[in-house]
Amino acid sequence: MTTPLLSLQGLTKAYPGVVANDQVSFDIGEGEVHALLGENGAGKSTLVKMIYGLVKPDSGTMLLRGQTYAPPEPRSARADGIAMVFQHFSLFDALNVAENIALGMENPPAMGDLASRIREVSETYGLPLDPYRTVGDLSAGERQRVEIIRCLLQDPKLLIMDEPTSVLTPQEVEILFETLNKLRSEGTSILYISHKLEEIRTLCDHATILRLGKNVGECVPSETSARDMAEMMVGSTLQTPERSGREFGEVALDVTGLSVPSPSEFGTALRNVHMTVRKGEVLGIGGVAGNGQDELLGVLSGEILTTADAIKFNGQSIGKLGPTARRKLGVLTAPEERLGHAAAPDMTLTENAFLTGSVREGLESNGFLKWSETKVFAEKIIKAFDVRTPGPENAARSLSGGNLQKFVIGREVLQNPDVLVVNQPTWGVDAAAAASIRQAILDLAANGTAVICISQDLDELMEISDSFAALNEGRLSAPRLTTGLTVDEIGLMMGGAHGMEVAHV
Amino acid sequence: MLEKRPQPSKAWSYATPLVAVLATMLFGGVLFAILGKNPIEAIGTIFWDPLFGEFSFYYRPQLLVKGAPLVLIAIGLSLGFRAGIWNIGAEGQYIMGAIFGAGAGLAFYPLDAWYIFPIMVIAGAFGGWIWATIPAFLKVRFGTNEILVSLMLVYVAEQMLASVSLGLLKNPEGFGFPGSRNFQSYDSGHNAELIAGSGMHWGVVAAFIAVIFAYVLLNRHILGFHIRLTGEAPRAAKFAGVNPARLILFCLGLSGALAGLAGMFEVSGPSGVVSIDFNVGYGFTAIIVAFLGRLHPVGILLAGGLMALTYIGGEIAQSQLGLPAAAIQVFQGMLLFFLLAFDLLTNYRIRAARSEVA
What we know:
The structure holds two protein chains of two kinds. Chain A is α/β, with parallel strands linked by helices. Chain A has helices spanning about 45-50, 75-80, 95-105, 110-125, 140-150, 170-185, 195-205, 225-235, 295-300, 325-330, 350-355, 370-385, 400-415, 430-445, 460-465, 485-495, and strands at about 5-15, 20-30, 35, 60-65, 65-70, 80-85, 160, 190-195, 205-210, 215-220, 250-260, 270-280, 280-285, 310-315, 315, 330-335, 365, 370, 420-425, 450-455, 465-470, 475, 480.
């Protein structure tokens, strides 16, 4: 048997209160694309941070081509040929591509030489990129290319990619996969982290599945069904949310010719958005992050005001009404960012329940707060949505992301909205909780609520929405019925490959 | 190493001020020892003598006289600070409150009527309010920085004070000396002690009412909730439907009105006259008091008392022990420094750094 490129043996890392990795062992062979699969919080990030030298394991060893490998810091991991593309890009918008790459290098060569090397590498691997373009003007897919090329310039033996496709359209994913396949054929190993099963089935040679910090199994993805892998990830059988055949009522929310300038410098302007949602209908809005999702939610919640007639609720113009007035009418929203937007981190759950619940739940009288009623409402949310917390007097920041998400969504769902707008409702939530949140949304719709679900998770949108539209640079495509939509059509609605040049491999 | 607590520690948030005072005594004592003074005697002079010493009958009323304006102003400031609205110009609002209040009273001179003092109170509050509303309006309308505008208006107010002391409000029977008529000899406009010799005047009453008002506002009223929410998570506040412009006008206006009241009570009572050197920095010291009291109404009440104590005790130490004024200021600075330093423990805990196995 040949020596594997990297062999992990019994890696363990504990943080106060949680064991992030417990005796994890597996091998990555030379020229292999190895998938690391697991839910949020399963310990994938901690594991790769140990490989990349950002975190030191409590116990266990790593062998790189048979030699002991214990990088004290990322710099020495890079020197040993390990490179990593992070999920969140660390690029400066105001600098150009070559300058950004030079910033991450130990001894950057002269700018001209670097630019020609960038061109050379980018053409070899089918990642066309102009070194002199400003990063602020690049699409998400192109930014990722910058990060990949930054890694490839080091000539890595192992490339770690953390959720690389979460910001890409299906067409952009295809381009990325061609590049990765070429790298594999040249003998570079890739550790590919994802929870998107179909991707892993097409790309990866082996998969290791983590659950609660433990290695719970390995498989050959191309020979395993997505459902089996999902059940290994979750550790139980999955429940598919039920959607009953629903009748749609009259139009509840009507948006016509909505245009809003970008509220901040790097935000997105909304351009001539049209949509209608009927009672009992779930409209799914897809799109790559940063194409106007936050702005659309702000416009619907009343944080950003528009012309009065641009948004109508049951025929009434509400474009100029603020958040409180809209809540009174029955238009509720749940933003994507939990800490700092949907909830105040240092305030208790009771106080956070009051934050949006004050109007509809009657939690104030003559401006005075009714703390005991508010506490009851907070406890109701905690109970109904299985929020894991010792009690409502705990600060919002003490909850894990998924638990806070359940609280934030539950707070709106329990207020019986007529229109509910949610942005990334299951982001960072484990599969079982995600299923219950989706079920709650579908139940609301069954009771006649008009729901708009903005999400980057296409599987989620296909699962719960009746019609689908996509945001692309602030424009909303015409909504189409979800049944019968193909992945290709969705990709085109999302803007295809965003004008990216196709890989020349 | 420091580790963030999942929850702010209740115990530490109460213990911090005490620990800070003890640490200040300890290090202050070292400082005084280096200066060649007996540290125990010096600390005793500052903290003990004003309260329980031989001449405490004279110093105790002074505590109320000095503490009341500090508390009154600091309460107003703390509401704005909680919402991230920084009124640095309370000194100017204090001066304007004094000018308006005194002006209203002197306009009636020598009429004797019960309604003169209430009118002066309203005029004083109005003077401070209008002076604080200028930066508020400019911020809402043009996005100017309220820190700079309110601070610059302090110097404008000081010029106005000099102008009226020498002109409009100058005592016609003052033999040409600058300064207004003395309210201590104009009964209808005099903010006299409610109980003779106690130091208790209407300003002290107003300070206590302000403490209770602020406590109820912050803990029971939606406006207070919105103030806290805006300070802790501005985006969440916007999501909750808070109108930032209205909040800015309210917070700056209210803190201005309270500072104006403090000025009015001072000019019509302990000070008695509008003069060029009327203001002694209460408006700036109140910023320290607000933070020393952790922006909490009850904390501010205690902090105002403590600050007044170190002022009076510091003066005694200067005159009796010959400590330099700078040493007293260093001592007061230490207090704020230790408070902020120990405050870290409310949100963080110290853990012995563990060497990690590679």
